[in-house]
Amino acid sequence: MFMRKSTVKKWFADLLGKDVSELPALLKEVSNKIGDAGKISVIKQELAELQLKKDIELRDIEHLVKIKEEKLNIQHQKTELELKSQFKDKEVALQTKYHDKTLKLLDDAKKDMTGMYKEIMKRLPNVNARIEIKD
What we know:
By secondary structure, this protein is mainly α. The protein has one domain (20-123). Helix content is 84%, strand content 0%. It contains 2 helices and no strands. It has helices spanning 5-16, 23-123. 0% of the residues are buried.
């Protein structure tokens, strides 16, 4: 079935709600919209690329931060071990000092006791003397 030109114009006028004489302007507007749609797809693609780039950069930053934290953690552990070593050295020095003092006090006490026992033994009568029993 063929339609007349006037019927087509009327149909377009009813459909668009505008006069058919404005059709070239509408076609131009539609082509602009289509062109804008092409730009939209390009912009969406650029946006996706930028988001991917952002994600990669964020992962790189997180990785660098993690490496820095690990280095700091290792440095803190090293410092902690050095401080523990210094503390242990001081502790051993103090223990040795007090051990030596204690040994000296014990030796002095031993000498004093030995001297005291010698004096006591000198004052006591000779116990080794023979006792004679008379029948």
